[in-house]
Specification:
Oligomer: single chain
Largest sheet: 2 strands, antiparallel
Shape: flat
Helix content: 55-70%
Radius of gyration: 18 Å
Strand order of the largest sheet: 1-2
Structural class: mainly alpha
Length: 131
């Protein structure tokens, strides 16, 4: 039940605010939902494999008990609700703080994060959970 509550809490604010008059985030839904579903599907496949292999699991005390395959419903909702909330927050930040150098800063930040993730992957090779 805790996981479901977290998912609903994650979605509630962004979804309710999506219809705000100035931001009008709902107009981006036709492009957003296919992107979330495509990328989320890849992560769900990975998640399913790791769950079946026992790399991680789900505590039955914290989920509703509605499983789809090896994973609880909440895990599927995670890959829909969290990306939605993140993109919504990103759009809010762009709206509230327009900045002419934002694109360059985003590219630099992305490069630094990508290098860091490749470093973690390199040094974690052979350790499924961390890799």
């Amino acid at each position: 039940m805790v996981y479901a509550g977290l998912m609903l809490f994650t979605l509630a604010g962004p979804l309710a605010s999506s219809f705000e008059r100035r931001l009008q985030f709902w107009k981006k839904w036709p492009a957003l939902f296919p992107a979330i579903l495509i990328v989320g599907s890849l992560f769900l496949i990975w998640d399913h494999i790791f769950t079946v292999r026992g790399v991680w699991g789900f505590n039955s005390r914290h989920v509703l008990g509605l499983d789809i395959g090896a994973m609880p419903l909440e895990e599927y909702l995670f890959f829909l609700f969290v990306p939605y909330a993140c993109v919504f927050l990103y759009e809010c930040m762009n709206f509230a703080f327009p900045h002419p150098g934002r694109e360059r800063a985003a590219r630099v930040f992305t490069a630094v994060v990508a290098l860091g993730l490749f470093g973690v992957a390199f040094f974690s090779y052979g350790r499924d959970y961390t890799f």
